């Protein structure tokens, strides 16, 4: 079982999806810690209910951003995760954190990157008038929502969509895709590194097309 740490800032619906996939035997991982930058993150209550190790590393407890990043990396290292999953973590982690977990931090973002990086990607997609958006799971590098793409799933943008309705549809795909990527890493089918490599001829539709594109 791949030991993973899950970083959250809010609801934690992706955390729930990962946990459910693990419990159901669809994801060969073990959540060794849930870490949040916000004490009030709903996902922390879920972690508590499930008896998962959890902790909070609030920015205000540290002198500055560098100290906070160091504190976060120290806390994470204590749990010895083989993979760190940013699942709705609303902070940018520093190059120092990335260096301490080289090629072992992944993120899920609610757009088809490289389109619409940064905040409120669903609203950006609506404003741009695109008819198709989705989510991307990628390796975290020093940029904002950059780094090698590991998986993407698409959804239609409906004419009457709001940022919230589009985001909700995108999240249904995230909940399928994120546990799948973790499982592929756990099985060694997907090897993370400077250039992530699939040990299959074609990672296939499971990783790059979602049935939701038809919805
Ligand atoms: C997700 O939509 C993810 O793409 C973005 O933040 C959201 C977190 O949602 N980075 P949740 O906390 O997992 O419900």
Topology:
Blueprint: E1 2-8, H1 13-23, E2 29-36, H2 42-49, E3 54-56, H3 65-79, E4 83-86, H4 95-100, E5 105-109, H5 121-128, E6 132-139, E7 149-156, H6 163-187, E8 190-191, E9 197-198, H7 205-208
Parallel strand pairs: 1-2, 1-4, 2-3, 4-5
Antiparallel strand pairs: 5-6, 6-7, 8-9
Helix pairs in contact: 1-6, 5-6
The chain binds 5-O-phosphono-beta-D-ribofuranosylamine (GRF).
5-O-phosphono-beta-D-ribofuranosylamine is lined by residues 8, 10-14, 43, 87-88, 108-110, 135, 171, 174.
Structure description:
This protein is of the alpha/beta class and 215 residues long. The protein has helices spanning 13-23, 42-49, 65-79, 95-100, 121-128, 163-187, 205-208; strands at 2-8, 29-36, 54-56, 83-86, 105-109, 132-139, 149-156, 190-191, 197-198. The strands form 2 sheets. A 7-stranded mixed sheet has the order 3-2-1-4-5-6-7, sandwiched between helices. Strand 8 (190-191) and strand 9 form a beta hairpin. Helix 1 packs parallel to helix 6 (163-187) and helix 5 crosses helix 6. It is globular, with a radius of gyration of 16 Å. The chain starts with a strand and ends in a 7-residue tail after the last helix. 5-O-phosphono-beta-D-ribofuranosylamine (GRF) binds next to helix 1, strand 5 and helix 6.
Notable characteristics:
single chain, 215 residues, alpha/beta, two-stranded antiparallel sheet, globular, binds 5-O-phosphono-beta-D-ribofuranosylamine
């Amino acid at each position: 079982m791949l030991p993973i740490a899950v970083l959250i800032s809010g609801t934690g619906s992706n955390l729930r999806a990962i946990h459910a996939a693990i419990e159901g035997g669809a994801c060969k991982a073990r959540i060794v810690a849930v870490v949040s930058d916000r004490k009030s993150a709903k996902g922390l209550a879920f972690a508590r209910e499930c008896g998962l190790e959890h902790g909070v590393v609030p920015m205000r407890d540290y002198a500055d951003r560098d100290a906070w990043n160091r504190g976060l990396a120290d806390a994470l290292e204590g749990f010895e995760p083989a993979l760190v999953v940013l699942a709705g973590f609303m902070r940018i982690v520093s190059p120092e954190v990335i260096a301490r977990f080289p090629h072992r931090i992944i993120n899920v973002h609610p757009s088809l990157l490289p389109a619409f990086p940064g905040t409120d990607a669903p609203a950006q997609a609506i404003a741009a008038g695109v008819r198709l958006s989705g989510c991307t799971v990628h390796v975290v590098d020093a940029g904002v929502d950059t780094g090698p793409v590991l998986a993407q799933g698409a959804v239609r943008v409906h004419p009457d969509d709001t940022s919230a309705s589009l985001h909700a549809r995108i999240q249904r795909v995230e909940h399928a895709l994120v546990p799948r990527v973790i499982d592929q890493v756990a099985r060694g089918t997907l090897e993370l590194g400077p250039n992530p490599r699939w040990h299959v001829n074609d990672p296939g539709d499971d990783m790059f097309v979602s049935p939701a594109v038809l919805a």
